[in-house]
Amino acid sequence: MSTPCVRAPVSAGETTRQALAERDLLDGDREIAVEDGDIYLPVVDADAAREAGYEVVARETTERDGPTPPAEILGVEPSYERLGDVVILDEDDPERAREVADAIVESDVPCETVVNRASKVAGEYRVREWDVLYGDDTETVHREYGHEFALDIAEVYFSPRLATERHRVVEQVSDGEHVVDMFAGVGPFAVPMAARGAEVLGCDVNPAAIRYLQENAQRNGVADRITALEGDVRETTADYDDWADRIVMNLPHSADEFLDTAVRLAGDDCVLHLYDITHEDDPFGPGERAVRAAAEPAGYTVAVETRREVRSYAPHEVNVCLDVRIRRA
């Protein structure tokens, strides 16, 4: 049977599968295929997949013949995401969470642990509390665009939903660049940037994140191009003034508080990737005004190269990114 399929490199297979599943585009009744380094993921709506930016091709597929998916057990399609071999639920009702966890374990979803969100992201380290419903290990290895990231969701913050956005930024990096990742976490920006030939300074206040960043640098063969600094980037980077060609500022809600430090770290020509949570009526204005207020008095010109809405965050609020080039006049 000829079926519309999204074609992607095998290295991006799991990330693409998760993104299609989140959009309810994945056709779970047809088999996924791999051929000549590409993965073919059957979809239920070819036009919607194209609108989402994917390459869609027609391909002969076969009907899935395997274990029962969770939806057949529950009668409805459950909402969950996978992070390595950990399955993450977001259910308000503990009984419903238990039902979904049992169905996932019974189904063909590969997992070692099933957890339910028990709190919002909170605290200096931006971590959650979790209800562990199956298994006992919240540490896992997540694969994203050909790289591996070890992490423990109980100790560090990590969002697999931002994989596409991270890849967009990483693709801009050139060999030999100096990059500062001001809030590096376990390295989802830093590691692939180093793999593209950049020299990366990764900072984080969370000692567990720094520990995993160092492990992931080793795991991915880029330890010689990543320097990890534990502590507040405003206090740990005195040796890197005028050093950076690119700065990643992924700390929504408060990244603007670090713009003076970003300007101090910036070289003569530097791109800032500033992430923020803003009101939908003026999603980019606050960030742009904040960059100008920090950079122009220091002698930089400011040019916004990209204004991007990354995702909806809350009613009337959006997660946005500004790619801003600052040049010393």
TrEMBL record:
SUPFAM superfamilies: S-adenosyl-L-methionine-dependent methyltransferases (SSF53335). Residues 80-328 form the SAM-dependent methyltransferase TRM5/TYW2-type domain. It holds the Pfam family Trm5_N. CDD domains: AdoMet_MTases. Gene3D superfamilies: 3.30.70.2580, Met-10+ protein-like domains, Vaccinia Virus protein VP39. One of its GO terms (biological process) is tRNA methylation. Keywords: Cytoplasm, Methyltransferase, S-adenosyl-L-methionine, Transferase, tRNA processing. Coiled coil: none annotated. PANTHER family: TRNA (GUANINE(37)-N1)-METHYLTRANSFERASE, TRNA METHYLTRANSFERASE. This is Class I SAM-dependent methyltransferase. It comes from Halobaculum marinum.
